[in-house]
UniProtKB/TrEMBL annotation:
Keywords: Kinase, Phosphoprotein, Transferase. It holds the Pfam family HATPase_c. It is an enzyme of class 2 (transferase). This is histidine kinase. The keyword Kinase applies. Its EC number is 2.7.13.3.
Length: 379
């Protein structure tokens, strides 16, 4: 009775299993040793491509298994037992995973699992993982960019604090000192005029610094619409402004050839070129007439605008420092200036998607360069 119950329960379980189950037999007298199916549950019958009984397993599941490998595997399993994964196969739009195990000296069990949902889930997980990795990489890049920006802002704030405490207070101290002399001491008319001119000069220097600070701030905040820009027109406008701001100082400006069009912003580029040329005519040895040479060249598909001068030059160790705000390599008593012009130029060129740099040797002049994207053919 117990055997009958066990048999009935086994039959119910075998019949209702979701996995495809098959019992195979290897006939010792069969020369090729290919296993035959002697029983299948309904789930396996649905996958069978021939009659479900007394046929070779490779005929029931054509294309699923390599016959020679299957025969060797079955012989090994009936001899030594164990279980072997036969791999995965796609059939009828679904994916299946098969495994086989030894039951006796002649019999084996074959289990076929439908892993379609699992494979789809794995594919979705892989897609999501790739998307998450991509988003994470993008987020990390943005965090790194924001961190660099914050570090730059902190450095600028430190420089600004120094400027407020030193550069902005210096002309105020000078004006107060000269005003005190005028109030407390008697001077001749010429002395009074001299002190008043010094007060005026200090006020003008303070105004220049404030204007440069405002210009630097605007470059970082203003919305820039990039468009086709003629470098010929940029240079012409910058040269006109240089004449107005040079204070009548003599200089030579030579443009080698026609300059190409680039992608940029006309007004911003005029300010950049003007700042570079203004420095070029300022930082020259005494008695030397400033000479500027301008030309453009193609560098790796980008347009490089070169502005060379015959000035005092810049030592290699200072060539990065000059682009930082409030950095001056020379005392204000030697060369006037606020130390902001090249910082404005770098920030502006960066916002235009370009690069700016300098090649120079001390005492041998400098060549400043600006790299920008070339404009396409004119429509």
């Amino acid at each position: 009775m117990e055997m009958e119950l066990a048999e009935r329960l086994y039959r119910l379980m075998f019949t209702n299993m979701r996995e495809g189950l098959a019992i195979l037999r290897i006939d010792p007298d069969d020369g090729d040793g290919s296993p035959e199916v002697i029983e299948m549950n309904p789930a396996a019958v649905k996958l069978c491509r021939c009659r479900p009984f007394n046929c070779k397993v490779v005929d029931c599941f054509p294309g699923w298994f390599d016959e020679d490998r299957l025969q060797e595997t079955c012989k090994r399993l009936v001899a030594f037992g164990g279980m072997v994964e036969l791999g995965e196969v796609s059939w009828g739009g679904s994916s299946y995973r098969a495994r086989i195990f030894g039951l006796s000296e002649e019999h084996l069990g074959l289990v076929v699992d439908d892993v379609t949902r699992q494979k789809r889930g794995e594919a979705e997980i892989a897609t999501l993982s790739a998307r998450i990795e991509q988003q994470t990489a993008g987020l990390e890049k943005r965090v790194a960019e924001r961190t660099a920006q914050l570090q730059e802002i902190n450095e600028e704030l430190d420089s600004f604090a120094y400027s407020v405490s030193h550069d902005l207070r210096a002309p105020l101290r000078a004006m107060r000192a000269f005003a005190g002399i005028l109030l407390e001491e008697e001077q001749s008319e010429d002395e009074r005029i001299a002190y008043l001119k010094r007060i005026q000069g200090a006020a003008e220097g303070m105004e220049r610094l404030i204007q440069d600070l405002l210009a630097y701030s605007r470059v970082g905040r203003q919305e820039l619409v990039l468009q086709r820009v003629s470098l010929d027109e940029v240079l012409a406008d910058a040269a006109k402004q240089l004449e107005l701001t040079s204070g009548g100082k003599s200089y030579r400006l030579d443009v080698r050839d026609h300059l190409p069009d680039v992608v940029g912003h006309h007004t911003v580029l005029v300010q950049v070129v003007l700042n570079i040329m203004g420095n070029a005519i300022k930082f020259v040895p005494k008695g030397v007439v400033p000479a500027l040479e301008v030309w453009a060249e193609d560098i790796d598909g980008e347009c490089r605008l070169n502005i060379a001068d015959n000035g005092i030059g810049i030592a290699p160790e200072h060539q990065e420092r000059i682009f930082k705000i409030f950095e001056r390599l020379h005392g204000i008593e030697s060369y006037a200036g606020t130390g902001i012009g090249l910082a404005i130029a770098r920030k502006a060129v960066t916002r235009l998607g370009g690069r700016i740099g300098v090649e120079s040797r001390e005492g041998e002049g400098s060549r400043f360069w600006i790299e920008l994207k070339k404009a396409g053919p004119a429509s």
